[in-house]
Amino acid sequence: MTMLSYDKPVAVNGQGPSPSASLSAGYQTMASSPKTARISAPVLSSGALSKPNGVTSNGSTTLAAAQRPEKDHHIWLVTGPAGCGKSTVAKYLASTLHLPYIEGDEYHPQANIDKMSAGIPLTDADRWDWLTALREASINELDKGSDGVVLTCSALKRKYRDVIRVAPYFVPNIHLHFIFLKAPEEVLLKRVLARQNHYMGANMVHSQFDILEPPTRDEIDVITIDVSRPAEEVMAEALDRVLKTMDGISARSLRQ
């Protein structure tokens, strides 16, 4: 099977490599989760506008319609180690912004869940299909017509984040964002110890910190938030930064 290599970091937010034949081939042949079928990225161009959108009776597009910027679509990936509050923050954002929500843990195959329940850390090989399934699930929501989607995924290593970064490569008006929830290991350990009926045990917190690669300065698509504070403060900051990010992108689109 042809697979993309994730050992080299990809560039971020439009600075990635051109869609070469090798990248295209790798993208098309990556394995997908049985929970999601492979779907094409949404066609969001203005090339096929209906009459209300500026097409004249003879089929030509009016100048105003031709100059109208394409609508921006956003994928918000809430990331971080176990216990950081990914689901809490992601559900809040999805509810407030009226966007679909994808719980990343639900896309793990049973073999992964069994390993984590037994306290066995996942390997890179365990994660590739899971990450690909999450990427495709998010594109699927956009393909249904949603303005955006919010999903959770630990995305502990840069190369895991790079798997998701493939999503907008061929559709420029899809914007991918990571919201990295940061806290000391001891804080997250206490939170996990207090949880009930979750397969992720407290011993997994340390193993996740062992492999954690916090986002670096050049990962400009990442919003980092300190979550060693009350949940209300964390959610308020997350929403504020999401709204400011969307406003900034909308402003740039209007200037283009």
Task: Describe the model.
The protein is α/β, with parallel strands linked by helices and 256 residues long. The chain has nine helices and five strands, in the order H-H-E-H-E-H-H-E-H-E-H-H-E-H. 41% of the residues lie in helices and 11% in strands. The protein has a five-stranded parallel β-sheet, sandwiched between helices. Helix 3 (86-97) packs across helix 9 and helix 7 packs antiparallel against helix 8. The longest helix has 25 residues, at 231-255. It is globular and about 50 Å long. The model is unreliable at 1-6 and 14-68 (pLDDT under 50).
Cα distance, first to last residue?
Answer: 41 Å
Structural class: alpha/beta
Series of secondary-structure elements, N-terminal to C-terminal: HHEHEHHEHEHHEH
Instruction: Write down the oligomeric state.
Output: single chain
Number of helices: 9
Radius of gyration: 19 Å
Share of residues in strands: 5-15%
* Biggest β-sheet strands, sense, barrel: 5 strands, parallel
What level of helicity do the residues show?
Answer: 40-55%
Largest sheet strand order: 2-3-1-4-5
Compute the average pLDDT: 78
Shape: globular
Per DSSP E runs of 2 or more residues, the count of β-strands stands at 5
Extract low-pLDDT stretches: 1-6, 14-68
